[in-house]
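[agent] plan:
  1. take the single chain provided in the ticket
  2. run structure prediction with default settings
  3. attach structure tokens to the ticket
  4. add a short note for the reviewer (M.T.)
[agent] executing step 1
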Amino acid sequence: MLCWPKGRRVYQDGKRLEYCKGGGFRSCHWNNEKHMPDTSKGEDVVADSLRLDHWLMLTRFFKTRVLASRAVAGGHVKRNGERAKPGDKIRVADRLVIVREHERFEIEVKALPKKRRPAIEARACYSESPGSVAERQATSDRLKRDRMSMPRTAGRPDKHTRRLLRRRNRSGE
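[agent] step 2 finished; step 3 output follows
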């Protein structure tokens, strides 16, 4: 017999039965026994592969798995030089190119974490190429200089300042 989805109550002969605590549709027993955890794999054993969107979330490139999945589907992440899909399996020694807003990361996967950990521990799961770090720093400096060269007003730009901003933005295109 199959378990009911997690959270559903099942009644038989007017009595409430125990439902599967594991959730999902798995073969189960209808006695009052509970599911036992799978002990075939040890708790510290980490799989040899992990979904790409999940790895991006665990290593703190994106705050949620949905954002990571959207970025991968949008073509902002390449795995080993090819466009990736959110469900692609990632392994140790894979090379990733991640574009997030104005930042570009070229990294090599070193580990597959089990949980989302602090940023310092997450950085230990990958190594970034020195060229990527230098390029990102140069981009950051260029954006800061751009912001400093913009005309400043005490509040909302007046007509004259708006014209200067429009002229400046059009000349850059």
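[agent] step 4 note for reviewer: The helical segments are 52-58, 65-73, 119-123, 130-149, 159-172.
[agent] ticket updated
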